[in-house]
Structures are given as structure tokens and as C-alpha cells.
Amino acid sequence: MLIYLCSSSHGFGHAARDAAVLQWIHKLRPDWHLAFSSVVQESVLRCLLAVDGVELRRCRWDVGMVQQDALGSDPLATIHALEELERQLPVQLDQEVSWIVDQGEPVLVLADIPPAAAELAKRLEVPLIWLSNFGWDEIYAPFGGPLKHKAEQAKEAYQQGDFLLRCPFDLSMGWGLPEASLGLVCASPRPIPQRLKDRIDAIEQPLVMVGFGGLGLSIDDEMFLRWPQFHFLVAPSGLNPECSNVTVLPEGVRPLDVYPYCQRHLGKPGFSTFCEAMSQQVGLHVVERRDFAEVPALLSGLRRHANHRLLSRQAFAAGDWKLDQPLHAATDSPLPANGALQAAEHIVACAEQRWGANSASDLIC
């Protein structure tokens, strides 16, 4: 059995949740062939997957939104990138269909959440499962103009799927498909290197993880120095702060791996960040953004399910991070952290139902 994943190249969040799902599929069916198709850097994907037996296919299936930085979108650049993608897709589809057919295995296409996956599954005449909390149709539509047409095209593609695995913090995704709702979709922390653990154990101040996703965000050293009563952990980048109260994580250590040591996370609204932090009961300081339709759903879920504090972009830029203030309590109970396993179980059931290994399953796929 081949599970072929078309993963969005919009940041690292899609790759993180997709890797968590593939890890569980590998545990449930270790003899299955898994392919992860994306243009996210191979080093990032290998770090996220941390399992052998997943084949990487370097393909761009979507654009998402081109962003100026971690907090701002660029609609015009997005339109140009979509036009370029449309010119490249025919050749890529031919190549990937040929490669998949050459494997000589039953196939299921899993997509998070490139519309072009619908054409791939159609050509192969195989099941297609969507995994997401939103579609690009609802992201593009509010911008109007040419992006409204792209939204309509995306929705038509999404309606061709067989099943929707609905992640939390979701938009409507009204595509008329059978579906299942999931808990938090994320991996589990891995042990950190002993040298880093010794360093963290020696720090007396409360730990705050600072992260703004794959694009990152430039933060002046002075901002960290305004909070000497806290110690900050940051992912490695080309602009590593040189402050006594900042530790740069070694390559290969994910934010998720250090969450068990942290009290709070400071960053942007992001699906995988929210899932990972909530799964480890880490409080969230979130810098608001207003030009991305997913954000209201994320913030609604934040208020309901996590202890949190919202910051305006102006407050963040001024260093007014409010780390000395108590967090606002969640208004609802925590979400279960079993979404990746749930997704894997549905995918396995669908694949086996479609190809006859479990014809008694009542899953519609």
C-alpha cells in the first residue's frame, strides 16, 4: 500500500502535523510505503518525521499565501505565484503519476491541503482524503479580485475528495464530503540532548519559547533584555540574539521538545504551535494578525481551550509582552491530544476498505 501525501508548502505548520500523522501510519502499518511530497527543506522534514521508511518527493503542490513576514500577507505576490504554479503543474502531474504507477502498489492520496491533489487522485482513479482545518478557498475569497476566482477553483477541487479529516480550529470547509473531527494533531516531545537539558536545568528564571514559524520575525535584542526576569528559548536562525537571557536551540531540537520545560510560548497564531503547546499545557502569548481568514478560528479555539494572552502587533513591537501578567483562563475544557492517531486510523481504514483488506468497515471512502 502506498500513501502519497501532498503537503502544503505554506510554512512548516502543515508539514509538522502531516509528519505526526505519517508517524502513526508507520506505527500502525510498518510495511506500508509512505511518500511525503513537498518543497519544505529535506532537513526540516527529516527532523519532523524522525522515522525511516518515508520517501521524500520534492514537489510544490500549492502556494498558500505569500507572506511579507510571519504576520503579513502579500496578495499580489500570491497571484503571481499561483500563475507560475499553474504553468508548472502539468509536467509535475505527469511525472508523479508515472512514478506512482511505477510503484505497482494500491494507492491512497492524502492532501493537506493543495487543490491540485484532486487532479492527481483523479488521474490515478484512487481515493483522496483531505486533512486540514481550512481550505484555500476560504483564505483567498476575502481578498476579492483574481483571488476570488482562485477560491472558486479551489472549492471545486475540494468537492472532488472522498473524505475530510477535520482538524480543530476549523473554518467551514463546506465541501459536501463525509468527515470526521479530530483532536489536537501533533507529535509528542522527544528527549533533548543532555547538554541542553543541563543548560535548561541550571536556568532559574521561567522559560518562554519564542517562535514565529518557518518565516520567522526579526526581534531586536533590546526586546529580550527588557525582560531579565525571564529566559527565552529561540530556534536557530541567521539572526540569533546575543543576550544573556536567550538560549538558541541546537539544530534538530523542535520547539515541541522543550515545551515540557516552558511556562509560556510567545508567537503568532499558528495551528501546529497551538496544538503542540496545548498538548503540553503551555500558556500562549499570541501576537494578533488580521489579514488571514484562519486567524479568527484559531483565536476562538485559543480562548476556549488554552490559558492565553493576546498582544497587538504594536505592543509586541514595543516590547510590551505582558509576561509579568497572569494568563486568561480557557473557557472550556482542554482538547484531547490524539488527533494524529485518529487521522492515521481513518486513513488506514479507508485504504483497506478501498482495496479490500477490510471490506466490513463502515467508513465512507
The top level CATH class name of the largest domain: Alpha Beta
CATH H-level superfamily title of the largest domain: Glycogen Phosphorylase B
Write down the secondary-structure element order: EHEHEEEHEHEHHEEHEHEEHEHEHEHH
Instruction: Give the overall form.
Output: globular
Q: What is the terminal separation in angstroms?
A: 16 Å
Q: From the alpha-carbon coordinates, what is the Rg to the nearest angstrom? A: 21 Å
Tell me what portion of residues adopts beta-strand conformation. Answer: 15-25%
Structural domains: how many: 2
Strand order of the largest sheet: 3-2-1-6-7-8-9
* Share of helix, binned: 25-40%
As residue ranges, the low-confidence spans are none
For this structure, the CATH topology of the largest domain is: Rossmann fold
The helix-and-strand class reads alpha/beta
Separate helix tally? 13
Using brief descriptors, characterize the structure shown.
365 residues, alpha/beta, Rossmann fold, globular
Give an overview in words:
The chain has 365 residues and is of the alpha/beta class. It has 2 domains: 2-186 and 338-354, Rossmann fold (3-Layer(aba) Sandwich); 194-317, Rossmann fold (3-Layer(aba) Sandwich). The chain is 38% helix and 18% strand. The chain is built from 13 helices and 15 strands. The strands form 3 sheets. The protein has a 7-stranded parallel β-sheet, sandwiched between helices. A 6-stranded parallel β-sheet has the order 12-11-10-13-14-15. A two-stranded antiparallel ribbon has the order 4-5. Helix 1 crosses helix 13 (339-354) and helix 3 packs parallel to helix 4 (117-124). The chain starts with a strand and ends in an 11-residue tail after the last helix.
